[in-house]
Amino acid sequence: MDGSESRLIRSGTPEFRRTTVALAAAGFSTFAVLYSVQPLLPIFSEDFGVSPAESSLALSLPCALLAVALLVVSPLSEVFGRKPVMLASLFASAALTIVAALMPGWHGFLALRALAGLAASGLPAVAMAYLSEEMDTRAIGLSMGLLVGGNALGGMTGRLIAGVFADHAPWRLGIGVIGALALLAAVAFWRALPPARNFTAHPMRWREVPATFGQHFRDAGLPWLFAEPFLLMGGFVCIYNYIGFRLLEPPFSLSQTAIGAIFVVYLAGTASSTVTGEIASRLGRRRVLWLAITVGLVGILMTLSDNLLVVIGGIVVVTVGFFGAHSVASSWVGRRALRDRAQASSIYLSLYYLGSSVLGTAGGWAFAHGGWPGVVAFVGGLYGIALAIALRLARLAPLPQAGR
Questions:
Q1: Do 220 and 153 share a domain, yes or no?
Q2: What CATH number should be reported for the domain holding residue 236?
Q3: Which stretches are transmembrane (predicted)?
Q4: Which end of the chain is more exposed for a tag (fewer CB within 10 A), N or C?
């Protein structure tokens, strides 16, 4: 065992537990801040007098700015270090969320939401790079799954709190509470995350940045892996963006609290990401990715039913499939990129959030012109393309390093 291997964090150690707690808290904060507005889109449409597609900008705009900023922030982490960049991101996005809750006008609210998305860009790609550098090979699948699980828990909690407050108190109070929880998560991250052992800061030559990004597109597998989050996250967000509009109407006629409670199914995503990440570490990512996407496709079709239990079951199945696929694909990027992993992670996550923004809003046009069947057709097409890519990746020749 050489010196670098001895410094890696192994599963079951105190450092492993501290790292997973810290990054789960960070994932919780980021997803709670970003996605808490999702069950409120019908309320925004009514309160501010905007269309469903326009109301989705409260989610799409911060995701779009986050997607672009990721490409700049990840090189900065090579200079200033992983933990300082992530810590600044968590505190800034939480503070901006609290301020946004106080903004009375639609355009001012959108501007602060956009700034919160910009601030949040310092966490996702840098966290993936941190895990790829610091974790032992046999621990990375589980640790990445726990990070994604923290995302799922944050998304569920943020949506649930927002939905409950929308029925029983001003929705702005719910957003403020979410900002406060995000601040607490930032403090937990600051206290728990161990310092990096395998990271060496180096000055960034900005003229060389395009080349460091471009090298990843010369790999036989990474460009296909980068396409997956755009398609999968875009489709997943479409389901969650517009299912609330459907469930408010007959034959369901649910309240905002009931719709918010449905987001408890995000717990299934927490379990799915962790379990699927562990299975992929054992069986190989190429054998697991396409199966997780197929599960998501089945759930999408289930939401066509007029039976509420079947629709909820479909949302559960979509959530399980999406988070499982995301856990596998994101860890695969971290293992396949042999250098400049923060940049590789930032490309992956930039397309992840760009899919959320662009396709999430495009789904509003599908809903306006085709109702819920239009959304299902749109999302089913996205997942069908993602499945074809996953089957191609299953035939990809691995690099000399095992499992890549």
A1: no
A2: 1.20.1250.20
A3: 21-44, 56-73, 85-104, 110-132, 144-165, 171-190, 222-243, 255-276, 288-305, 311-334, 346-368, 374-394
A4: N
3 state DSSP class of 104:
coil
The rounded distance, in Å, linking the Cα atoms of 219 and 275 is 28
CB neighbours (10 Å) of residue 31? Answer: 25
Side-chain half-sphere CA neighbours of 382 within 13 A = 29
Judge residue 169's burial from the number of C-beta atoms within 10 Å of its C-beta, 0-12 exposed, 13-18 middle, 19 or more buried: exposed
Q: Are residues 281 and 357 in the same domain?
A: yes
321: tokens are: 């499939």
Sign of CA pseudo-dihedral 37, 42, 48, 50 = positive
pLDDT digits (tens, 9 = 90+) for 186-225: 999 999 998 878 877 767 666 666 666 677 778 888 999 9
In a domain, residue 55? The reply is yes
Of 102-116, 156-170, 194-208, the range with the highest mean pLDDT is 102-116
Q: What angle do CA 18, 339, 205 make, to 5 degrees?
A: 105
Domain co-membership, 233 together with 351: yes
The string of DSSP codes covering 259-279 is HHHHGGGHHHHHHHHHHHHHH
Rounded to 10 degrees, what is the CA torsion of 195, 178, 144, 353? -110
Q: What is the pTM of this model?
A: 0.75
The answer to whether residues 166 and 252 belong to one domain is no
Instruction: Report the Cα–Cα distance between both ends of the chain, in Å, rounded.
Output: 21
Q: How many CB atoms lie within 10 A of CB 113?
A: 26
Are both 387 and 264 inside the same structural domain? yes
Helix pair 14-35, 124-134: axis angle to 10 deg: 170
Amino acid in the structure at residue 367: F
Total number of domains constituting the chain: 2
